[in-house]
Design a protein that fits this description.
The chain starts with a strand and ends in a 9-residue tail after the last helix. It folds into 2 domains: 224 residues, Glutamine Phosphoribosylpyrophosphate, subunit 1, domain 1 (4-Layer Sandwich); 317 residues, Rossmann fold (3-Layer(aba) Sandwich). The strands form 3 sheets. A 7-stranded antiparallel sheet has the order 3-2-4-1-10-9-11. It is of the alpha+beta class. Helix 4 packs across helix 5 and helix 13 crosses helix 14. Strand 7 and strand 8 form a beta hairpin. This is Putative asparagine synthetase [glutamine-hydrolyzing]. It comes from Candidatus Nitrosocosmicus arcticus.
């Protein structure tokens, strides 16, 4: 894991001072070293030293800050290919890098044991085979990668750059352009910090972005149109129903899940779990405990919240090591500005979910955890949201798959970017077993009738995620835990009601909300399926944005991120 930035000048200006600003504002993404690649050289430093940046003078610079997870202390980026024609920055994890390395070792010189170095040599191989077609080389490379990534590749002879994002969108990259510069970074604040761009875009999952020289020495193509890349790991628009009975579904899911967790915990002796007591994080923790010598679960919430009491009970029954970060009103009030700055958003739904996760990760980092697992994605692929059964009742089983696939496709901006920023703010790497491409491909081929019940005699038929829960039983998790009803994070942790109290304490109530503000609120993008359409099938107030709370958060955000835009 790391932070990636890059900037090039259209007018031949020195951009090294800007690179320093971009990297240092997200230093926690890579506290273990920094590297710069100019047109002429690659230099490294163990610290964010101003003198290091001052030595550079270039108009096209890639910058990288490293969180050392794979490969130990040796593995500073950017990487240069053996033939010195290509430079690479990589943010993410490649799970099949050992297998790929074996196929490359006879033709390439390796200087580290990192997964990232494998990627540069693989691109180099395809670049040679395609006679210098960089985009085609990138397409062929990502087709072979099993992992999550953002790659930035620069062709040294031309200065052309290609960015590419994995097909699920687990890691993110943003970019901006004006008449002087083109720049990109792992977080929006890297671009905000140089105050150059009126609009910032995100690269979409499974896409590449080509920045190409078009004329003289400093003229680049400024259209920045994304180019679709077939990674073979993207979310499909339709999935054939392959598993139509419970036994075949369980067998296929069991194999895919075991493989997914194994590849994410391989070589670790200690790992953390973002734990809420729900079946998703329970399964992840239960399996990880069988594969890793030390597994620690981290839960957060206000005193006596359901997530804390349930987590304690479940941890005792399953013999899981549980650590709790118990929050008070003062803690949360002080944390809100931090959260808004970290996730780069003031949306109520995003902030209130982020708070307990941030607190759990912060405790994990304090205790020396470097890698954590999460249960994110299970509700979308197994049909776990309560409104999914309402969709089935209204439109039938054919329609529900469309909703589920759309929700999975939107996870990148509704969940994944938020949680990447949260964990990386604490220099912790987050891994998502339920979002393994092979596992997604397997689970979305299960007949939705096996997961989402439309009535039934068995009391457990109405809980949703039936195949998921049945596998939990098969693995040895007690039925009362496997079929426990789990509240949404903001409610189970007690954070939603606490935010309501804080808003009121600070003078934001229903009477504060004017019709003009409601008009403004109606134009904001809705985040998460609960906000986007869940309330259409559920009458509960809890799924709607409460205007007075949103006003309170926006007031705080105006003092933290004056440049924030609703993008």
């Amino acid at each position: 894991m790391c932070g990636i930035v890059g900037i090039l000048s259209k007018k031949g200006e020195n951009v090294a001072p800007l690179i320093e600003k971009m990297l240092t504002c997200m230093k926690n993404r890579g506290p273990d070293g920094v590297g710069l690649a100019t047109e002429d050289e690659i230099v490294y430093s163990n610290t964010f030293n101003k003198l290091f940046f001052a030595q550079a003078n270039a108009y096209n610079v890639l910058g990288h800050s490293r969180l050392a997870i794979v490969g130990g202390s040796c593995g500073s980026q950017p990487f240069l290919s053996c033939d010195k024609k290509l430079v690479l920055e990589h943010n993410g994890e490649i799970y099949n890098y050992r297998e790929l390395r074996k196929s490359l070792e006879g033709r390439h010189k390796f200087t580290t044991s990192t997964d990232s170095e494998v990627v540069i040599h693989l691109i180099e191989d395809h670049y040679e085979k395609t006679k210098g077609n960089l985009l085609e080389a990138v397409k062929r490379t990502v087709f072979q990668l099993d992992g999550i990534y953002v790659l930035a590749i620069r062709e040294q002879s031309t200065g052309n750059i290609i960015l590419v994002r994995d097909g699920i969108g687990v890691r993110q990259i943003y970019y901006g352009e004006n008449d002087r510069f083109i720049a990109f970074g792992s977080e929006k604040k890297a671009l905000w910090n140089i105050n150059m761009f009126t609009k910032i875009e995100r690269l979409l999952p499974g896409y590449a972005l080509a920045i190409s020289k078009t004329g003289n020495e400093h003229t680049y193509d400024t259209s920045l149109h994304p180019i679709t890349v077939n990674t073979s790991k993207s979310i499909r628009t339709k999935y054939p129903i392959t598993y139509k009975d419970i036994n075949s579904a369980l067998d296929a899911y069991n194999d895919a899940l075991i493989q997914s967790v194994e590849k994410r915990v391989r070589d670790f002796s200690r790992i953390g779990i973002v734990f809420s007591g729900g079946i998703d994080s329970v399964i992840v923790a239960y399996l990880a405990k069988q594969m890793v010598p030390e597994v620690i679960c981290y839960t957060s919430g206000i005193k006596n919240s359901n997530d804390i009491t349930n987590s304690i009970e479940i941890a005792e029954k399953l013999d899981l090591h549980l650590e709790i970060n118990q929050l008070s009103e003062d803690h949360v009030e002080k944390m809100i500005p931090e959260i808004i700055n970290v996730i780069e958003d003031d949306n109520m739904g995003q902030v209130e979910v982020a708070i307990p996760i941030y607190a759990a990760v912060k405790l994990a980092r304090h205790q020396g955890i470097r890698v954590m697992l999460t249960g994110q994605g299970a509700d979308e692929i197994f049909g776990g949201y309560s409104w999914y059964s309402k969709i089935v009742q209204k439109y039938g089983y054919d329609k529900i798959l469309e909703y589920m696939i759309k929700d999975v496709k939107l996870l990148y901006k509704e969940t994944l970017e938020r949680e990447d920023k949260i964990t990386m703010s604490q220099s912790v790497e987050l891994r998502e077993p339920f979002l393994d491409p092979h596992l997604i491909d397997t689970v979305l081929r299960i007949d939705p009738r096996l997961n989402i019940q439309n009535g039934g005699i068995d009391m457990y038929d109405n809980f949703g995620k039936r195949v998921h829960r049945r596998l939990a039983e098969k693995l040895g998790i007690p039925k009362e835990i496997a079929y426990r009803i789990k509240e949404a994070a903001q409610h189970g942790s007690g954070i939603h009601n606490l935010l309501d109290s804080l808003a009121r304490k600070n003078g934001f109530t229903e009477t504060s909300v004017k019709s003009s503000y409601l008009d403004k609120l109606g134009k904001r993008e809705l985040m998460g399926s609960s906000q986007r359409y869940g309330h259409l099938f559920e009458s509960e107030k809890i799924w709607n944005i409460e205007p007075h709370i949103q006003m309170y958060l926006e007031e705080i955000a105006s003092n933290i991120l004056p440049a924030i835009t609703k993008q």
